[in-house]
């Protein structure tokens, strides 16, 4: 069994990135490697160039993401952690698959329609063809399982269609070149809201630093931000239904639930009827307790560029070994 999953390298990581994305990778790593599977996790730096991007920060964002992933529990000895750009087989296989993918298939991708908007003529060719790169990303490793959120289901279907057509057109039934990967539904990701506005997502692009808890924040900053978090004047309800129409309260209780592993009902059974004056310090303590060890590892790792580069180089080396037989089989099948 092989699991392959990618994440865009972004900088300024925060609590939302941790609970919404990174933590799921750690959970999957632990669950699937225990079943004997190999997890391949890659930073999608090749995908980053399909949209306008900053060359000066791309490599740093990749390093930042590696530091965050390792600090949060991705173990480079357990999982294969690497970036696409160091494994040329991704780009090579994409070109080979471009011969099999149909224009009509790509034209139907809703993400292409959404992201290109009205300016299709001005969109990059990469934005149109990146679902083929995504297909290469997983087919290259004979992935058996790929975690997909709602928005990626269509792209995994496309990868299966490409694999099937390639196998049909260029390989025998007994010796297919590609494995058709099955989707797995990742553990439900929390959607974390801004600490300053319960209707906005916690985001690195929010100009107010008080709106988010960064993975680099120290204990004082975490306590301050929780203390200043926007709330309403009512005490906490004693049942979940009472959070209806109270987005700030719901968000803070949700964060407490995510970090404590307790359900909302049990948290409200404890804190219901009390004001935020008693809940916020409890939440702050919990966050410091859970995040400080991560933040400490992160701060130490983030400044050690050569250690981060070494992790990526080692991961890329392992990935190349797994990629080579498939790439060679694809060239051979095409008569190249
Ligand atoms: P940002 O919104 O800060 O720009 P990105 O868009 O770069 O973050 O997202 C990187 C990953 O983190 C994605 O998988 C995204 O779903 C997740 N993520 C970002 N913000 C949140 C949030 N507030 N709650 C849950 N998940 C989030
Ligand atoms: Na974003």
From TrEMBL:
Name a biological process GO annotation. Answer: tryptophanyl-tRNA aminoacylation
CDD domains from the entry?
TrpRS_core
On whether Aminoacyl-tRNA synthetase is a keyword of this UniProt record, the answer is yes
One GO cellular component this record assigns the protein to is: cytosol
**Where is the motif named 'HIGH' region mapped on this chain?**
9-17
> What superkingdom does the record give?
Bacteria
Signal sequence interval, chain numbering? none
Entry-linked InterPro entries? aa-tRNA-synth_I_CS, aa-tRNA-synth_Ic, Rossmann-like_a/b/a_fold, Trp-tRNA-ligase, Trp-tRNA-ligase_bac-type, Trp-tRNA_synthetase
Please list the residues that bind ATP: 8-10, 16-17, 149-151, 192, 201-205
UniProt keyword annotation of tRNA-binding present = no
GO terms for MF: ATP binding; tryptophan-tRNA ligase activity
HAMAP family in alphabetical order? Trp_tRNA_synth_B
Chain's role: Catalyzes the attachment of tryptophan to tRNA(Trp).
Its quaternary structure? Homodimer.
Protein's UniProt name? Tryptophan--tRNA ligase
């Amino acid at each position: 069994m092989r699991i392959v999953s990618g994440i865009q390298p972004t900088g300024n990581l925060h609590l939302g990135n941790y609970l919404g994305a990174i933590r799921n990778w750690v959970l999957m790593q632990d669950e699937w490697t225990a079943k004997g599977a190999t997890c391949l996790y890659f930073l999608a730096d090749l995908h980053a160039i399909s949209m306008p991007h900053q060359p000066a920060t791309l490599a740093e964002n990749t390093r930042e993401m590696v530091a965050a992933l390792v600090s949060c529990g991705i173990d480079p000895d357990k999982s294969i952690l690497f970036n696409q750009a160091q494994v040329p087989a991704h780009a090579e296989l994409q070109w080979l698959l471009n011969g099999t993918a149909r224009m009509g298939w790509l034209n139907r991708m809703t993400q292409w329609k959404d992201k290109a908007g009205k300016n299709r003529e001005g969109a990059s060719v990469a934005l149109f063809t990146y679902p083929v790169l995504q297909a290469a990303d997983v087919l290259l490793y004979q992935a058996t399982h790929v975690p997909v959120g709602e928005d990626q289901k269509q792209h995994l279907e496309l990868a299966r269609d490409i694999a099937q057509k390639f196998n049909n057109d260029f390989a025998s039934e007994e010796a297919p070149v590609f494995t058709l990967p099955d989707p797995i539904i990742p553990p439900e990701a929390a959607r974390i809201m801004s600490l300053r506005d319960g209707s906005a997502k916690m985001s690195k692009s929010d100009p107010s630093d008080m709106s988010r808890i960064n993975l680099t924040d120290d204990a004082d900053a975490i306590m301050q931000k929780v203390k200043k978090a926007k709330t309403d004047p009512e005490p906490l309800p004693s049942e979940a239904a009472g959070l209806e129409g109270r987005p700030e309260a719901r968000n803070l209780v949700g964060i407490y639930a995510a970090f404590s592993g307790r359900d909302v009902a049990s948290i409200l059974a404890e804190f219901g009827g009390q004001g935020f004056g008693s809940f916020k310090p409890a939440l702050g303590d919990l966050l410091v307790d859970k995040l400080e060890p991560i933040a400490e590892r992160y701060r130490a790792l983030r400044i050690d560029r050569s250690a981060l580069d070494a992790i990526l180089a080692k991961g890329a080396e392992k990935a190349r070994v797994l990629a080579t037989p498939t790439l060679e089989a694809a060239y051979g099948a095409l008569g190249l």
